[in-house]
Amino acid sequence: MTAAKASTTATDGVTRRQTNGVSKQSATTFQRFDAHDPATTSSAVVDAINHAGGAIVTNLVSADIASQIKADLAPSFATSHTDASQFFPSTTQRATALFNHPSYIRLATNPLWISIANALVSSTYTYFRENGRTETVTEKPIVSSTVGFRVLPGGKQQVLHRDDNDYHPHPSILPVMIGCVAALTKTTAANGATVAIPGSHLWPSDRFPRNEEAIPAELNPGDAFIFLGNLYHGGGANVTKDEYRETVGVFMCKPTLRPAENQFLSVPLETVKGMSAQAQRLLGYGVARPGVGFVRYKDPMREVLGVDDGEVVEL
Q1: Kindly report the CA angle at 113 between 107 and 114, in degrees rounded to 5?
Q2: pLDDT score for 296
Q3: Residues of the chain with CATH 2.60.120.620
Q4: What pLDDT score does 26 carry?
Q5: What pLDDT is stored for residue 42 in this prediction?
Q6: Which residues does the annotated region (Disordered) include (predicted)?
Q7: How far apart are alpha carbons 88 and 159 in whole angstroms?
Q8: Homologous superfamily of 26-124+139-249
């Protein structure tokens, strides 16, 4: 994680780190930035994220782009299936494989977002070469998942969780993920805005998150909540009678969290279909719990290969 710069108390009620590390008061909220403001630099947002675990960037993309993404995802929401694992409440509809939509790519490749993600989740490593010479390499994060969410009226709050859990990371390398959740509709505390606990990215693994500690990230269309993968968060409850909220997320992970040899491109799918289930799983077609390797929120072993060998993960 990029080290946070020393600073004093900031605006919007965010208590920032003090100089010389003398005082490191806990964050109580998430700082808000306007992407249209020249003072909103990636380094300023990174500093705020390092302190609180997340930050809100208004106007990250235009309302027009948000509206186009909303229209593009409508068919997927209409055919969304219920989450068998119950990680997502039954009142949450989902859309996946979003790089199929050019409108979404404009969000996923937004320069400010990419600069923030690169600063926080790139991977740098130094290793020996011949004659004791060392080489240091830095690689940028890659997409872990692309997901749209529609929370219907009456929707229950999602369990508070850390996205990093998917990768079983050692605490010393946290975070391994970063998320950007942008609003397609106005999102409020009442209609299910994402809730998160400021500062919880700094908690030890044995500290339990409580719902009363979480606050909503309220957004207008085009605004985004950007947060680290080890920040406790969840989809909020929709207590309205006639509103639904839609958001869309791009989640990035460290670039080394993948096979060295790309098996999905090296071996044709038709060849894979003729293999044993054991061989298929060795190539990475099975899901690693709690949720790495899904396609359309289903296990590829069943969804793509038609295999049900007793190890299929229900998502």
Answers
A1: 100
A2: 83
A3: 26-124+139-249
A4: 83
A5: 98
A6: 1-26
A7: 8
A8: q2cbj1_9rhob like domain (2.60.120.620)
Q: Kindly state the tokens that stand for 216.
A: 């909503």
pLDDT value for 88:
73
User: Residue 23's pLDDT is what?
Assistant: 38
Query: What DSSP assignment string belongs to the chain?
Result: -PPPPP----STT--PPPGGGS--PPP-S--EEETTSTT--HHHHHHHHHHHSEEEEETSS-HHHHHHHHHHHHHHHHTPPP-TT-SS-TTEEEE--GGGSHHHHHHHT-HHHHHHHHHHH-EEEEEE-GGG-EEEEEE--EEEEEEEEEEPTTPPPPPPB-GGGGG---GGG---EEEEEEESS-B-TTBT--EE-TTGGGS-TTPPP-GGG-EE--B-TT-EEEEETTS-EEPPPB--SS--EEEEEEEEE-TTSS-SS-HHHHS-HHHHHTS-HHHHHHTT-SPBTTTBS-BTTB-HHHHTT----S-PPP-
Burial 71-106 (b: 16+ CB within 10 A, else e): ebbeebbeebeeeeeeebbebbbbbbebeebebbee
Q: What pLDDT was estimated at residue 24?
A: 56
